[in-house]
Design brief:
The protein is α+β, with helices and mostly antiparallel strands and 594 residues long. 24% of the residues lie in helices and 21% in strands.
């Protein structure tokens, strides 16, 4: 078993791949966790949070609202933003599903990727063809795009990073309309748009208009008016920048590769069908070649979902061995004793091409089953146990593997239901709606203006939504500019009068505006000494601390002297006074003591 920080040659080889920027590491690391979930907003008392209605501001499934938005409207806007060149909106929709057919696919959809590419693999992992869902690539009547309906709109402001580089994800969940409860004939896709920050120089504060717009929905009782506001958020945007959620740059075609479309594929041809329920992920790219430019959906890995067989020590491939070595470095993050905040990072070269929540014949997506295939004693489980002991965690290795699985696509959707995650976290909630977190059926069939809502799982209403509600409310309660300062508890430093000395003060940004020199944020001296300034290019975000260092000359006056500063921006002070106290000794005294 390798010692801590002493990695195997396989892990070092993988590190070289990542440093070289291989194709395996090109995609950003996506997770349902992180962002603002890891900040103090998760536990900060919030008055606003209590006023929010989660089924208006976080998860909107009112038939009277979602029925006014169709897939065709969304695809029309995307194609128009691309200059109406290349595929039409119908063709773009069909091209998404043509990826599930073997090459060459539909004759009027040339140049696109297919499941049969690279020997039915993606990222070196199996990628099976799904011709049943691939039938939606056909050009028959009625058009397949018109067979889908919107069943939910979801606010994931909680996924905004603390630096405010974007304002979170905003999702549109579509389902293939089936007039009767045919659980084996469903098909779903969800647009997950990452919304750019309209004023990124402000950091997270630049996202306040977006957060306010979503919170405002809780105050609007008229569903028609609320529906108009929601539609505006997705199609037009808010504020002077008017950046809509539905934009070709928000689904992966941007410098960071953020945003995606994911599919929930579960059309099966009867009981015992070989096609398991399947989750897959895509990026929308604007591609140009000698024939011109067009939008295309490109299959990518399912993020935060490593290949299940990598947990099996019988898999001795270099990649599998390096994954198990790497996994040990993530144990501490997975052992965090908070259901909403345990997490880990999965480099993309380890991610699978697909994820199934069903108990497939080989159990390849069942991390627990895979780790249990190893010999006893199991060196991988032993290494996890050693790391748990090092960090003082009472969890077991199986708890850690179960937590990793719960963060995978298939685990979150179905496989992890009721599974013991250990600690105060307990069992994973058991309230999903069989492979989905929101329903797509209403009986009897709804009519225009129907007041009913598509059902949302109890896992959402009792666990996920309250946490997201807390974060949104706490953010809105947090002032744009604020700071905290705790005077040092160590002994006061002493220095002879007239001598030079160095000191530091530490201040924490507790507001939503990122501190930077460009924003003219500094600690202004209150007693005529030197101001404390941020370095060019430095940024201090919500919850981060800044250590200001300074060098002064001690005054001639003997005794305690306190230097004071106040954080300011453009002449406006905020936060408490910062202070540094010094004991000035007579010039003839002994040498300074720290």
């Amino acid at each position: 078993m390798p010692a801590r920080h002493s990695f195997s040659p396989c892990l070092l080889w993988v590190g070289l791949l990542l440093l070289k920027g291989s194709s395996a590491s090109a995609e950003p690391l996506h997770s349902e966790r992180g962002g603002l979930q890891a900040t103090s907003l998760a536990h900060r008392p919030s008055i606003t949070a209590a006023t929010l209605d989660p089924l208006r501001s976080l998860a909107i499934t009112d038939y009277s609202i979602v029925s006014t938005i169709t897939p065709r409207m969304v695809f029309d806007q995307l194609v128009a933003q691309a200059g109406n060149t290349g595929f039409t909106s119908e063709q773009l929709f069909r091209q998404l599903w043509d990826t599930q057919n073997a090459a060459p696919g539909q004759p009027d959809l040339p140049g696109g990727p297919h499941c049969s590419d690279h020997g039915n693999t993606l990222n070196g992992a199996p990628y099976f063809c799904r011709p049943t869902e691939g039938t939606d690539a056909g050009s028959g009547a009625p058009p397949s795009i018109d067979r889908y309906i919107l069943v939910g709109l979801f606010n994931r402001f909680d996924l905004a990073p603390v630096d405010g580089s974007h304002c979170g994800e905003y999702r549109m969940s579509f389902a293939k309309f089936v007039p009767s409860p045919q659980t084996r004939s469903k098909n779903r896709f969800i647009f997950e748009g990452v919304l750019p920050n309209p004023t990124p120089e402000l950091g997270l504060e630049g996202c306040r208009p977006v957060a306010q717009a979503w919170a405002h929905l809780s105050t609007v009782d008229d569903p028609i008016q609320r529906g108009l506001l929601v539609k505006s958020l997705f199609f037009e945007g808010v504020g002077p920048s008017r950046n809509p959620v539905i934009h070709i740059g928000n689904y992966g075609d941007n410098p960071s590769g953020a945003g995606q479309l994911r599919t929930n594929q579960f059309i099966q041809m009867g009981v015992g069908s070989p096609e398991p329920w399947m989750l897959r992920e895509f990026k929308l790219k604007h591609q140009c070649d000698i024939t011109g430019c067009t939008l295309r959906f490109i299959p990518v890995t399912t993020k935060a979902t490593p290949r299940g067989d990598f947990f099996n020590t019988q898999n001795t491939s270099p990649l599998a061995v390096s994954f198990r070595d790497y996994f040990i470095t993530q144990v501490a993050s997975l052992a965090v004793d908070d259901f909403h905040r345990f997490n880990y990072v999965v480099p993309d070269l380890y991610n699978a091409a697909q994820s199934s929540p069903q108990l497939m014949r080989d159990g390849v997506d069942d991390f627990i089953a895979q780790v249990n295939k190893g010999p006893i004693p199991n060196p991988f489980l032993d290494a996890i146990q050693t790391e748990l002991q090092r960090i003082g965690s009472p969890l077991t290795p199986h708890h850690i593997v179960a937590r990793a699985e719960s963060l995978s696509c298939g685990g979150c959707h179905d496989r992890s239901k009721g599974r013991d995650l250990g600690g105060s976290t307990g069992a994973f909630p058991n309230g999903s709606l069989r492979f989905v977190q929101s329903n797509d059926l209403l009986f009897p069939q709804p009519q225009p203006g129907d007041p009913r809502l598509y059902g949302v799982s109890s896992t959402h209403t009792s666990t996920f939504l309250p946490f997201r509600q807390q974060i949104l409310g706490a953010f809105l309660d947090t002032p744009p500019l604020d700071a905290s300062f705790a005077p040092p508890t160590s002994a006061v430093a002493s220095v002879q009068a007239g001598q030079s000395f160095s000191g530091t003060v530490v201040v924490t940004n507790t507001g939503t505006t990122s501190w930077s020199a460009a924003q003219d944020i500094q600690a202004l001296s209150l007693d005529g000494t030197e101001d404390l300034r941020l370095a060019s290019g430095e940024a201090i975000h919500l919850g981060q601390a800044k250590t200001f260092s300074f060098t002064h000359t001690a005054p001639s006056t003997v005794g305690l002297v306190t230097y004071r500063w106040r954080m300011q921006r453009d002449g406006t002070a905020f936060g408490p006074e910062l202070s540094f106290t010094l004991n000035v000794l007579p010039a003839s005294s002994a040498a300074p003591r720290p």
